[in-house]
Design a protein that fits this description.
Elements: H1 19-26, H2 37-55, H3 58-65, H4 74-84, H5 91-100, H6 105-120, H7 124-130, H8 138-150, H9 154-165, H10 176-184, H11 190-202, H12 206-212, H13 221-232, H14 250-264, H15 266-276, H16 284-298, H17 305-312, H18 315-318, H19 321-333, H20 337-346, H21 349-352, H22 355-367, H23 371-381, H24 387-396, H25 411-418, H26 421-431, H27 435-445, H28 451-463, H29 467-476, H30 483-486, H31 492-502, H32 506-517, H33 537-546, H34 560-577, H35 582-591, H36 593-599, H37 607-612, H38 617-636
Helix pairs in contact: 2-3, 2-4, 4-6, 5-6, 6-7, 7-8, 8-9, 11-12, 13-14, 14-15, 14-16, 15-16, 16-17, 19-20, 20-22, 22-23, 23-24, 25-28, 26-27, 28-29, 31-34, 32-38, 33-34, 34-35, 35-36, 35-38
Family: Belongs to the transglycosylase Slt family.
Keywords: Signal
Pfam families: SLT, SLT_L
């Protein structure tokens, strides 16, 4: 019998253990309701035990730990205890932990830390005993390959090295001994070096390229210098003597240089590209990359250079989605409705059925006088609860469709799920404010769950007042129709307070928050934006200072009250900068007011056209989602709009003056 035969684990398990080990973990960890006073007491003991362990008061720690053996977070104490004392002699303790707590995310965390310790001390056979081929990140993968090499299994290791080598960025130091052994075995040839140089140059990794140069012969190295030269000064490509020379990577270098030149002088770059097209050997991928770059920069230039570029593209390349989209948006921005229709009709038939293309086909048909056909498309599209569905309804003068279907789940299944050890751990961690660990437990417990089981999990998240997990769980299975689950009203009093103080729409603030963080209070973006409304620390400090307040440290932005207050005030500031236009303010919240000021048209544009032609794809999609979410939140707040509010559909007017921006 395997995990897939047990409730909520239909997809099987990644960990090969016997059912004897697993059953205690899958059974209810405790018959107590996690919200009972008994658990309140245990939480206090748990926190005290953690503090005692951290302070090194081991006698007190062991005394408290004894009282927590039936508490859901007992594995976390054991994990902290073992991590704090981990040494080479800990092998038996590690094995016991991995066996006893295999069905927790802690097991993988401990395993990875143990593997790093073994690698640090060159315990390569032990390393292989604990690792798997798919175990861990790139550092652990390289450690495993080194372990194979050091234990006489080089042939097996070398089969995996090329995949790690061919990457455009520097690899961790753990990979260096592996690369060295691979090279000494005669398996690193110049073609593999050149392949990686190309990846590095396309990633802008000049330092890595200079390092890789040492693996080439003296005759090859000048071509690397040429590539670096035209990367920094692409204008030198014009009339460069290397244009007349031959080399296997000549075209890759020239294509790179033309793309770089297009940023500064797109017309000159296009002229050079037209001449280069007579040179044989350019791959379709190289051509597409150059054409995309030229199209991006020629679109910003006056004249017919862009149209001339598209005329030079062979038919097969015109089907490239990026180029098709660019052609479409340029035609739309210029109100060339015939070209809009032609571009859409070039798309594969299944793609033409997407809501976006159906809406713009309808708009274009109406614009060229084929109103009957256009209206028919709009009527069908208006059945959808979506951005394009709302636009279609608005154009027809119809009420916005707010189809809602409440989730219905089996109560016995709900009870069974709620008592799984992993779910109880997830809930305890959430109650303690340890959001990241709580999400890890939730996701780990639900790995391999079926569609129906995930529906039950979403309902459980609702009951546990965990809106983010309800949203993410439903998204996994594309279940879109329970608006109460997908668009929760968490933090309503905080949002209402700010909306009233600033005279902003509550629905709009909710929509921004829903798009920014999906109600994850400790959300952090790759750019460093924090909290529910994803504020950059510098922006938050500036807003706070303008309010006569002080943000002591960036971690305050994880507090819902602080984040919503500052986020709403920043939204209000960009709303005023954008002359009270919520579409422009939404774009500014995402991309910054100065960028939006640069994107404004020289002449008035319909709002839907302007949104569709915003240069940043991220901001385009952000605008569409926030606009749709705002309408849904109007509905959730009991004020379903019959049509788009006028403020959300008014035309986008010409440039904002420097003073206003």
């Amino acid at each position: 019998m395997s995990l897939k035969h047990l409730p909520f684990f239909t997809g099987g398990s990644r960990i090969a253990l016997t059912l004897v080990l697993l059953l205690p973990l899958l059974a209810p960890a405790s018959q107590r309701d996690p919200a009972t006073p008994a658990n309140d007491e245990q939480r206090s003991i748990f926190i005290a035990a953690e503090a005692a362990l951290k302070a090194g008061r081991m006698s007190r720690y062991r005394q408290l730990k004894q009282q927590l053996k039936d508490y859901p977070l007992y594995p976390y104490l054991k994990h902290s205890e073992l991590q704090g004392s981990l040494r080479l002699q800990s092998g038996a303790a590690v094995q016991r932990f991995l066996a006893e707590f295999a069905d927790t995310p802690l097991s993988e965390q401990l395993r990875n830390r143990w593997l790093r310790l073994l690698a640090k001390h060159n315990r390569w056979q032990q390393y292989l005993d604990y690792s798997t081929p798919s175990n861990g990140n790139i550092t652990l993968r390289c450690h495993r390959l080194r372990a194979l090499i050091e234990t006489g299994q080089s042939a097996q290791a070398f089969q995996k090295v090329e995949d790690i080598w061919l990457h455009g960025r520097s690899r961790p130091k753990a990979c260096d001994p592996v690369f060295k052994a691979w090279q000494e075995a005669g398996l690193l040839d110049e073609d593999l070096v050149w392949q990686r140089i190309e990846l590095a140059m396309n990633a802008g990794q000049i330092r890595l390229t200079r390092y890789l140069r040492r693996f080439l012969s003296e005759d090859e190295r000048p071509w690397v210098e040429f590539w670096i030269e035209i990367h920094h000064k692409p204008q030198r490509l014009i009339n460069h003597p290397y244009l007349k020379k031959t080399h296997p990577y000549r075209n890759a270098i020239l294509a790179h240089g033309i793309r770089r030149l297009a940023r500064h002088n797109p017309k000159r770059a296009f002229m050079l590209w037209q001449a280069e097209l007579r040179h044989p050997g350019y791959s379709d991928k190289q051509k597409l990359n150059v054409i995309r770059s030229l199209a991006t920069h020629l679109a910003k230039q006056p004249g017919d250079g862009l149209e001339t570029l598209f005329e030079t593209i062979k038919p097969s390349l015109k089907l490239d989605p990026t180029l098709s989209d660019k052609q479409f948006r340029i035609a739309l921005e210029r109100h060339n409705w015939e070209r809009v229709i032609g571009t859409i009709r070039q798309l594969p038939q299944p793609e033409q059925q997407q809501q976006r293309w159906r809406y713009w086909m309808a708009r274009a048909l109406i614009e060229i006088g084929q109103k009957k056909k256009g209206v028919k498309l709009l009527k069908d599209l208006a059945k959808n609860r979506s951005y394009y569905g709302f636009l279609a309804s608005d154009r027809l003068g119809n009420p916005l469709n707010m189809e809602h279907e409440s989730l219905q789940v089996d109560q016995a299944e709900l009870a069974r799920l709620s008592h799984l050890s992993g779910m109880q751990r997830a809930r305890e961690l959430k109650i303690l404010g340890r959001h990241l660990e709580a999400r890890r437990e939730w996701n780990f417990t639900l790995r391999g769950a079926s569609h129906s089981q995930l529906l039950v999990a979403a309902e459980l998240a609702r009951q546990w007042e965990w809106p983010s997990q309800a949203i993410f769980t439903l998204a996994k299975i594309h279940h879109w129709n329970d608006l109460e689950l997908r668009f929760p009203l968490a933090y309503r009093s905080l949002i209402n307070q700010q909306a009233e103080a600033l005279n902003l729409e509550t629905a709009w603030i909710f929509a921004i928050l829903r798009q920014e963080s999906a109600f994850v209070p400790d959300a952090r973006s790759s750019a460093g934006a924090l909290g529910l409304m994803q504020l950059m620390p510098f922006t938050a400090k500036t807003v706070a200072r303008r309010q006569g307040q002080r943000l002591m440290n960036k971690h305050e932005l994880y507090q819902p009250e602080t984040n919503i207050r500052l986020g709403a005030r920043y939204l209000d500031s960009v709303f005023r900068k954008m002359r009270g236009n919520p579409i422009l303010a939404t774009a500014a919240y995402n991309a910054g007011p100065h960028r939006v000021a640069q994107w404004l048209p020289s002449q008035e544009q319909p709002a839907d056209v302007w949104i569709e032609t915003v240069p940043f794809s991220e901001t385009r999609e952000y605008l569409k989602r926030v606009m749709a979410y705002t309408m849904i939140y109007f509905h959730r707040l009991g004020d379903t709009p019959e049509q788009l509010p006028e403020i959300w559909s008014r035309p986008i007017s010409a440039k904002i003056s420097d003073q206003e921006s």
